[in-house]
């Protein structure tokens, strides 16, 4: 039976819409452009200026709708199977890439409310696959041009005010902290959950001020072990123990004291860590045979989307995490954050 509480615009996300340009490359390609496996960085204007052209010219590339939050919302919609439950805000260029992104988002049920700019082309992300690893190098382009004006437009402001859950990426801290704080304050004023992803180690290192400004408003925090360890190091937690870090993240200052913070940390093939109310729970990961693993691009986004698809329906945290793990397992068996057919998640089988 369809969940009656799942109305249109239940979950609203802000992020960077990017078109992924994905290819299998050699380790030498990463070395040439000073990139690491399983990392995510912003492109350097000088260092990476030839990367995208060389990638398209020398390798067999796939173009896949991407961007962390948009991916998570697409996965969430796939699991829910009811259109327009999610709304997405982000900035794109007035070009063919934005048409591809919009077509994919809309066809998969996301209500994409893009801000358009003629100043920059639609953002792209080089997804460099080496074995089972992926290195992400994002050229934000138009995504960097998002302004708070867009969410203050009357129709968009109404969507912000009426959504019941919110999701933002750490990546968006590099673009529009005022937009994030606008949404965070709406969430706080209306006692609605705000979820956020640490996104990448460099966010904790180089965007500390906006990160620490929004963190007190965050009710659900996602991250992986590398992101969590980097955050802990930058904030002088004095430990590398992932469970201790999770508890410390829970206990950081929080604006809405009615709801204790939930921290969810993934660790690849190692157990997912849930920290809540001073307690830790671990969830073992079902490890896929090597021949079923295609690439890990989008696994973290899929996990967040899977988790949120259950969380916004009021399911408990255990079911939400099991759905996140299920969704990530589906995505790593395909190229990029893609899926097909009807989602058949069954918590009893997880």
UniProtKB/TrEMBL annotation:
One Gene Ontology term, aspect cellular component: cytosol
Main location: nucleus
Catalytic residues, chain numbering: 301 (proton acceptor)
Keyword Plastid tagged: no
Needed cofactors: Mg(2+)
EC number assigned by the record: 2.7.1.20
GO biological process annotation, one example: AMP salvage
Locations listed in the record: Nucleus
UniProt catalytic activity: adenosine + ATP = AMP + ADP + H(+)
The protein's annotated pathway: Purine metabolism; AMP biosynthesis via salvage pathway; AMP from adenosine: step 1/1
Note on cofactor: Binds 3 Mg(2+) ions per subunit.
Record-annotated Carbohydrate kinase PfkB domain positions: 38-339
Domain of life from the UniProt record: Eukaryota
GO function terms (MF aspect): adenosine kinase activity; ATP binding
Keywords: ATP-binding, Kinase, Magnesium, Nucleotide-binding, Nucleus, Purine salvage, Transferase
Job description of the protein: ATP dependent phosphorylation of adenosine and other related nucleoside analogs to monophosphate derivatives.
Protein family (similarity comment): Belongs to the carbohydrate kinase PfkB family.
Subunit structure: Monomer.
PANTHER family registered for this protein in UniProt: ADENOSINE KINASE
Protein name: Adenosine kinase
Organism listed in the record: Dendroctonus ponderosae (Mountain pine beetle)
GN (gene name): 109544597
